[in-house]
């Protein structure tokens, strides 16, 4: 059986939003013998690491470095749950690797569904400043762990496609070690793994796999870990058509995580097949969530233009799921972009309290 045939989402976590308290309770009740607390967040919430497997190849991975990116947390939960359906897959994989998985590195941000931590700092840009407690614990764990690979797990916006048509449902990156983007041996190790993952995913969701830009970011976590000698692979979970709650993305994220671990176990630091990494198309920034086409403004000088809208994800304390609030992001000629939903207003007049839609405000207008 292939892993995708035994994939099942863990029913205890149906929503995109995961409260830290619910996650902690689940880990303590289901995996108490596998988890250790590696530190505490700025607001004194625990940060747990689950250790599984007995293999010689050591891998570390972490989720929700950005609090509003829960797909990787779901993927790890679903991976463990799905492997219970096939002892052969489970035993083969876990006999070859030892995985340390840090759930929800940023629990304070996850609680509020924000990218930043409670200090309003981005953990992924704090490598040298070293101001965040959470990143210090990750760095300490890696310094002591003698790992062979790291998986830096994130999510990306809905704006990206692979070809201007298909959404970049998953994108991967072998990060650069310097501004010149030299192809080093450690980068080749990452490229070889990504190439194998891409090969499997293309069978399931062809044209939905992208390659993230390898621009070097001097303060970012992944770039600095690989620069220090640890092969580090970036995952970015993205959009799937009509899937803003990312249930389909969650599925393919889990499958990608399995095949990444399986490839790491098989390659054992080798670089076979790394050249095909460059065949993966680089992400293109081509889409908005909604575009209203051919809108007539209610001004002294009638003109026809487009209004582009993006959703913002907001969480209200005490709720079980996030909400999507549309914001005006561009006004004018946006014919060089597409919308996942496009509405032709056919010259209908824009009706609002203001004559002109303001950028970065919620959509509160209609047409007549």
Oligomer: single chain
Number of strands: 16
Q: Strand count, sense and closure of the main sheet? A: 8 strands, mixed
Instruction: Report the uncertain regions.
Output: none
Spatial separation of the terminal alpha carbons: 56 Å
SSE pattern, N- to C-terminal: HHEEEHHEHHEEEHEHEHEEEEEEE
Give the fraction of residues assigned to helices.
25-40%
Tally of contiguous helical segments: 9
Structural class assignment? alpha/beta
Radius of gyration, CA atoms, in whole angstroms: 22 Å
Main sheet strand line-up: 1-2-4-3-5-9-7-8
Task: Provide structural commentary.
The chain has 368 residues and is α/β, with parallel strands linked by helices. It is built from 9 helices and 16 strands. An 8-stranded mixed β-sheet has the order 1-2-4-3-5-9-7-8, with helices on both faces. Strands 13-12-11-14 form a 4-stranded mixed β-sheet, with no helix packed on it. The protein has a two-stranded antiparallel sheet with strand order 6-10. The mean pLDDT is 95.
Task: Give a short synopsis of this structure.
Helices cover 28% and strands 25% of the residues. It is of the alpha/beta class and 368 residues long. It has an 8-stranded mixed sheet, sandwiched between helices. A 4-stranded mixed sheet has the order 13-12-11-14, with no helix packed on it.
Blueprint of the fold:
Elements: H1 3-6, H2 20-30, E1 35-40, E2 46-52, E3 57-62, H3 71-83, H4 87-94, E4 97-103, H5 107-112, H6 133-145, E5 149-155, E6 160-161, E7 170-173, H7 185-204, E8 209-211, H8 221-227, E9 232-237, H9 247-267, E10 284-285, E11 287-296, E12 304-314, E13 323-332, E14 338-344, E15 350-351, E16 366-367
Parallel strand pairs: 3-4, 3-5, 5-9, 7-8, 11-14
Antiparallel strand pairs: 1-2, 2-4, 6-10, 7-9, 11-12, 12-13, 15-16
Helix pairs in contact: 3-9, 7-9
